[in-house]
Amino acid sequence: MRVLGVDPGLTRCGVGVVEGVAGRPLRMLGVGVVRTPSDAELGERLVAIERGIEAWLDEYRPEFVAVERVFSQHNVRTVMGTAQASAVAMLCAARRGLPVALHTPSEVKAAVTGMGRAEKDQVGAMVTRLLRLDAPPKPADAADALALAICHIWRAPAVNRLQQAHAAARVPRIPVRKVTR
Question: Which long-range contacts does 17-21 make (Cβ < 8 Å, 24+ apart)?
Answer without folding.
Answer: 17/56, 17/60, 17/62, 17/149, 18/131, 18/146, 18/149, 18/150, 18/153, 20/153, 21/153
